[in-house]
Amino acid sequence: MSPYKITKAGKADLEEILALQYLAYQSEAALFGNKDIPPLKETIGEVEAEYDKGLILKMTADNGTIIGSVRAFEKEGTVYIGKLMVHPDYRRKGYGKELLSAAEGYFPGRRYELFTSTRSVDNIRLYMSQGYKIFDQKKIDDELEFVFMEKLT
């Protein structure tokens, strides 16, 4: 159990979460040698739309700084989880697992779905360790292929 607190984000947190997203997704962009990936181009308006559509959680340090976040929304019995991120200085400590588990906890007994790049081996390993299984892959272009994963409860 981490010393950090996971709570629902408020609208006032969205700019800080977007700034964290820009920082956290640099490592993902580096896998492609290209910063032209959707999480690095998302606008505050798009984050606000996601906030209005579902759940955004934040993990905060003692001083209130947001060090992690995850988003989820439910549609037709499936909970779609996305934008799971942890500040680079706090990675490899289990906080991603805690955020993922917290998001699932808001929607108990559902089917959970998420996706990541096939190049994101660490992400795939994390999701598999939490009970997710690959059920589909989609090639987007010559560089990008997504793996879709689900967890059934």
**Portion of residues in helices?**
25-40%
CATH topology: Aminopeptidase
Cα(first) to Cα(last) distance is 23 Å
Largest sheet: 7 strands, mixed
Strand order of the largest sheet: 1-2-3-4-5-7-6
- Average pLDDT level: 93
Number of strands: 7
- Which CATH first-tier class would you pick? Alpha Beta
Structural class: alpha+beta
How much is the radius of gyration in Å? 15 Å
Strand content: 25-35%
What is the ordering of alpha helices and beta strands?
EHHHHEEEHEHEE
Shape: globular
Structure annotation, total helices: 6
The overall number of domains is 1
Low-confidence spans: none
CATH superfamily: Gcn5-related N-acetyltransferase (GNAT)
Would you kindly provide a written description of the structure presented here, covering whatever features stand out?
With 153 residues, the chain is an alpha+beta fold. The chain has a single domain, classed as Gcn5-related N-acetyltransferase (GNAT) (Aminopeptidase, 3-Layer(aba) Sandwich), CATH 3.40.630. 34% of the residues lie in helices and 33% in strands. It contains 6 helices and 7 strands. The protein has helices spanning 14-24, 26-32, 38-41, 44-53, 95-105, 121-129, and strands spanning 5-8, 55-60, 66-75, 78-86, 111-117, 133-139, 145-151. It has a 7-stranded mixed β-sheet, with helices on both faces. A hairpin with a 2-residue loop joins β3 (66-75) and β4.
